[in-house]
Inverse folding.
């Protein structure tokens, strides 16, 4: 029982906190005084029409854009302050980020090794996303759904407690249904899952998974 307070404290820190966030591009205000909190054990739907500032907010969370004012923190820190960020937060912001000429296996392995993981973890996320048979193919030959699966595999490499997906498209088949189970720390029926059994994960998903939030309570 001695480690329980530490474990609970750790879970309490696994939140996304956006406070009074504003981003302006010249005369255009993309985000206007936004505040939100994504707590452990929940999938939070980030809802809004195109142009509402959802992607801009996520880019600020990951340090790709600087806010005009306000803060965006993950676990109480800015993303740039994380030593091995894949172990703390995984993201799919642009499914086409991988170089089209690279093979999926090599792309995943290079990212995994940069964060202290190896071939075993790459094999796990490929199995989880249903991409094992396509791992040696070049990304440019993938369908849209396969590109997205590959992006999800990257997000899962560090077995992170927090996941952020920007505008997921519903062309992923059964893999999309595994995400709430991942966040809930449960096994998926009928197969193995490449993540540790732990609860208290958090997810931020624009427009998504409202009907599945109960799986992650």
């Amino acid at each position: 029982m001695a480690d329980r307070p530490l474990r609970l404290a750790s879970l309490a820190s696994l939140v996304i906190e956006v406070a009074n966030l504003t981003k302006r591009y010249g005369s255009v205000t993309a985000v206007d005084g936004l505040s939100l909190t994504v707590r452990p054990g929940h999938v939070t739907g980030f809802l809004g029409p195109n142009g509402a500032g959802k992607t801009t907010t996520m880019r600020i969370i990951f340090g790709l854009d600087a806010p005009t004012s306000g803060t965006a923190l993950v676990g109480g820190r800015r993303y740039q302050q994380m030593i091995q960020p894949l172990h703390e937060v995984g993201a799919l912001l642009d499914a086409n980020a991988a170089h089209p000429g690279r093979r999926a296996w090599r792309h995943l392995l290079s990212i995994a090794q940069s964060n202290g993981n190896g071939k075993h973890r790459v094999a796990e996320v490929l199995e989880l996303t249903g991409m094992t048979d396509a791992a040696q193919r070049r990304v440019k030959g993938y369908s849209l759904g396969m590109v997205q699966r590959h992006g999800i595999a990257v997000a899962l490499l560090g077995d992170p407690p927090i996941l952020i997906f920007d505008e997921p498209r519903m062309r992923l088949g059964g893999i999309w249904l595994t995400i709430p189970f991942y966040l809930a720390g449960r096994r998926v029926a009928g197969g193995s899952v490449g993540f540790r059994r732990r609860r208290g994960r958090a997810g931020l998903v624009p427009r998504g998974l409202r009907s599945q939030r109960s799986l992650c309570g």
